[in-house]
TrEMBL record:
It holds the Pfam family DUF5713. It comes from the Bacteria. This is DUF5713 family protein.
Amino acid sequence: MDKFDDQYLLLEQLYDDSFYPDFLVDKIKYLLEDFINYLETSPQKQSEIEDKIYELVHSVNNFQYEFLDNESEFDNLARECLIRDIEYILQWFHFPINVEEVLAQREWE
């Protein structure tokens, strides 16, 4: 499997907005990097990748109180940024997975 695009800036929109604390955006970036590493190193079935996406979103949801404690919020803009990055990652690796469909039954907390 090819390596991920090292020119692509993960969560760039969140880093550019001071509303989102960098140290919390870093935590989400690490989750995305783990997801990328998984795609680079493991043979996967679509269902396994969908499970990993679900796990990633669940982990991000766990940061919600940390955002609130830091006068921020993982809001719609942040969710859209995360989904856009996941979609880019999947396209880079040629996985035809619709992230919106995978998350359709998953409520963001």
